[in-house]
């Protein structure tokens, strides 16, 4: 190994990496050294130190956030907002991003989650195919072909592209479909040391959906958006089969309110529902996860009997391109999660731990909201736009997602 590489490993107390050299072929050694030189070990060291610190609890003033209920808009207001949004979309200034970096492991599916098949009233449909159907409807409605950007991960990028090629992009204009990869960070154990995977490389994992801003810039997509005059971008997850990501009313409302970010919410079904909520913290828009919202606040109701903190977040966001430009070089805070991860031992054996053994670091897309004075919130009906697919059985499963999809499309 180069002296530069050895110096890095020594400086950051990662010299155990050298014990894996004897397991590697010459090609694997070269790949490993290349990987070591790319990793920001200073950042990794700081993240590890933060796991040992008691979480800093800032003085927080939590307030409810204002929103517009789509169902309560008058016909006249709807038409006005839709006209504003329609003008942007039909003029070719609108694009869609699907975050699809995950695998379908929890669904019992091998491969990218977007390649999972849902049995619908229209026949078996891949999740990617369901998105294409929605895009085609929008294209027909607005007489345009909307650019579609798909965020993959290192783990599933090649397989995702191959899948699209094998299915001829489901007859979508392939020149309008672009793939880009989200970033990764190494996993580290409780001693702050990197671990290895079966490929004899340092094991890394996706850096969370908050890495999307940097990934868009690094991939060259931000420059492409600028060159093609894309002014607004809608971002959503692969696993909501009812996502309405070409919504002229949300776009019109966000522009009318002079905001740079819009988001959709659904009313919480009850105070205990496990969904993050939109609110204001110290005067800025924020999403508080259900476990972090004090019980008395979660149960608080207004004069109409509705939950004061009842705007549930389901991962549907609209961004002005200027926001993506602003955030392209901003490092959002990372959140550490203690996870269970298989790893390659120094003797070449592969270990499957029975309990959590590593820290995984993720940034959240919505942590960027607090950088702006306010955002637009549009409340929509669950039955129209929210059918999550997370689990193999039970809540948010293939069966519940299919039932919701079928109820709408029948």
Descriptive overview:
By secondary structure, this protein is α/β, with parallel strands linked by helices. It has a single domain, classed as Spore Coat Polysaccharide Biosynthesis Protein SpsA, Chain A (Alpha-Beta Complex), CATH 3.90.550.10. It has 13 helices and 20 strands. It has helices at 3-11, 26-38, 41-51, 75-90, 127-142, 157-166, 212-219, 221-227, 248-256, 295-298, 321-327, 382-385, 398-409; strands at 62-63, 68-69, 94-99, 117-120, 123-126, 148-152, 177-181, 184-186, 188-189, 204-206, 232-237, 261-267, 277-281, 284-288, 311-320, 335-339, 343-344, 350-351, 358-362, 376-379. It has an eight-stranded mixed sheet with strand order 2-20-12-15-11-3-6-7. The chain has a three-stranded antiparallel sheet with strand order 1-13-14, with no helix packed on it. Strands 9-19-16 form a three-stranded antiparallel sheet, with helices on one face. A hairpin with a 2-residue loop joins strand 4 and strand 5 (123-126). Helix 4 packs across helix 9 (248-256). The radius of gyration is 23 Å and the shape is globular.
Q: What's the alpha carbon Rg, rounded to whole Å? A: 23 Å
The amount of beta strand, in percent, is: 15-25%
Task: Sketch the major β-sheet.
Answer: 8 strands, mixed
- CATH topology annotation: Spore Coat Polysaccharide Biosynthesis Protein SpsA, Chain A
Output the structural class.
alpha/beta
Instruction: Tell me the helix content.
Output: 25-40%
Total beta strand runs? 20
Unreliable parts: none
């Amino acid at each position: 190994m180069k002296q530069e590489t050895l110096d890095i490993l020594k400086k950051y107390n990662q010299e155990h990496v050298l014990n894996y050299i004897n397991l590697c072929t010459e090609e694997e050694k070269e790949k490993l050294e290349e990987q070591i030189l790319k990793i920001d070990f200073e950042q990794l060291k700081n993240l590890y130190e933060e796991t040992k610190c008691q979480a800093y609890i800032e003085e927080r003033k939590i307030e409810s956030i204002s929103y517009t209920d789509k169902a309560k808009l008058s016909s006249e207001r709807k038409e006005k907002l839709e006209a504003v949004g329609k003008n942007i979309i039909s003029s070719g200034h609108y694009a869609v991003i699907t975050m699809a970096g995950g695998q379908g492991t929890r669904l019992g599916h091998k491969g990218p989650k977007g390649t999972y098949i849902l049995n619908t009233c229209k026949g078996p449909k891949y999740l990617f195919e369901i998105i294409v159907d929605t895009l085609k409807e929008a294209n027909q409605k607005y007489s345009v072909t909307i650019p579609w950007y798909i965020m993959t991960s290192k783990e599933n990028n090649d397989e995702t592209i191959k899948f699209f090629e094998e299915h001829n992009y489901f007859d979508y204009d392939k020149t309008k479909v672009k793939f880009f990869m989200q970033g990764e960070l190494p996993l580290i154990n409780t001693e702050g040391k990197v671990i290895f995977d079966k490929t004899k490389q340092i094991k890394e994992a996706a850096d969370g959906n908050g890495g999307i801003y940097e990934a868009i810039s690094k991939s060259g997509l931000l420059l492409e958006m600028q060159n093609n005059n894309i002014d607004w971008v809608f971002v959503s997850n692969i696993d909501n089969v009812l996502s309405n990501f070409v919504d002229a009313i949300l776009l019109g409302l966000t522009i009318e309110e002079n905001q740079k970010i819009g988001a959709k919410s659904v009313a919480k079904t009850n105070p205990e529902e496990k969904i993050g909520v939109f609110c204001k913290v110290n005067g800025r828009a924020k999403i508080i996860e259900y476990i972090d919202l004090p019980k008395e606040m979660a149960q608080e109701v207004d004069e109409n009997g509705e939950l004061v903190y009842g705007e549930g977040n389901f991962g549907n966001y609209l961004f002005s391109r200027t926001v993506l430009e602003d955030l392209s070089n901003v490092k959002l805070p990372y959140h550490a999660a203690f996870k269970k991860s298989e790893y390659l031992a120094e003797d070449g054996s592969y270990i499957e731990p029975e309990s959590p053994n590593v820290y995984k670091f993720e940034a959240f897309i919505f942590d960027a909201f607090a950088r702006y004075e306010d955002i637009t919130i549009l409340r929509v009906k669950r039955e129209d736009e929210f059918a999550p697919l997370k689990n193999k059985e039970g809540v948010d499963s293939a069966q519940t997602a299919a039932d919701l999809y079928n109820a709408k499309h029948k």
